Amino acid sequence: MTEQAREERFDHLFATTVRERLGDPGYTAGASPDAPDAVPLTYGFPYPDSFPEAALRDAVDTVLEEEGSDVLQYGGGEYVDRLHEGILGRERRRGIDATRDELLLTNGATAALDAVGATFLDPGDEVLVESPSFMWSLAVLDNHGAELTGVDLDSDGLDPDALEATLEAREAAGEPTPKLLYTIPEFQNPTGATLTHERRERVLELAEEYDFLVVADDAYGELRFSGESPPPLAALDDSGRVIRLGTVSKTIAPGVRTGWIVAHEALIEQMSRMAAGGTNTFTQSVLGRYFDAGHYQQTLDELLEGYEERRDAMLDALGRHLPAGSTWTEPEGGFFLWITLPEGVDAEAMLPLAAEEGVTYLPGERFYAADGKGTRSLRVSFSHVSPEELEAGIAALGRAAEASLQ
Length: 406
Ligand SMILES: Cc1ncc(COP(=O)(O)O)c(C=O)c1O
Known about the structure:
By secondary structure, the chain is α/β, with parallel strands linked by helices. It is built from 13 helices and 14 strands. It comes from Halolamina litorea. Keywords: Aminotransferase, Pyridoxal phosphate, Transferase.
């Protein structure tokens, strides 16, 4: 990115949380080199052919025909209710028995996390996050002035021993207990790790013991190609400590900007008060119809095939192209793999060369709340391009890594 002089004359008018972050990368921490010919393994974008255009067109026509002006009015018509029912039905399939009062529709999972931040966080409040974690979620929490502390994670997800040690150390030092733990328990972004059942139980026990809430961002849970899913944290929670975030960005399309929060009624009540202006009820009506017509499951089945094929193509290419000493995760679903290159490679420094060779990715460092971690690691997404492009992209990554080791 080119450095540009920042306009400073409005600085005194910004809120403190904004003023203290002027010049910080924020969302631009995800910026990628401008390399139009490189294979983009950078972002968690669904592949374009996966979008259910015909089904959405049909749903738009139907809601306009059946509901007329109601669908365009404040609050929408009956199809908004149908979407609530559709989502609660999907949640029930995952073992979560929530009521309408425990569900809040949002404009996506990111907006849901923003509502959590607005409802619970004062500047300076402590939030525990996985180390590494999704950089844009870290940016949302940072926007609310949160102090972020990373807790280690391995191939079984967040490490409850590390979590307990962090909580104990804070308590011993007389520091306040964190209000929130933000976790991505299913096919974590960026590592692809899934939290084991046993660890889920321990995380919930610690939440109870130390009195914090667990924000479980489940953007990928329905995208499992093989193996068994552990029960979602919300299905194991009997004390109302889990705030569950969901989205259809990965199972229908990000452009429809629709997600939700499932949580204890008392928490939903306050979070809905913070969601000024409401949500897009026209889109919600279209999705209500989409669910009713049975498109959701049908599209999901097709997606699972498309993503599994891509995951397999990427794993196969990694085995053939990466230098000896490289390691990577092998997730059973989701969008991402986490690669660690041999000693001596710096993934951030290697990015311009990789882009020249024909691939872009996100360097590992950008997923950590603290500096200096993840320098040998990088996140690649297998969701966005075709299996042939994945092969070409990983071959380019292999060339860049070999050259960096010289
Ligand atoms: C863990 C996680 N949460 C949230 C999002 C974004 O969700 P939405 O598009 O619903 O805002 C993503 C997408 O990249 C993600 O990986």
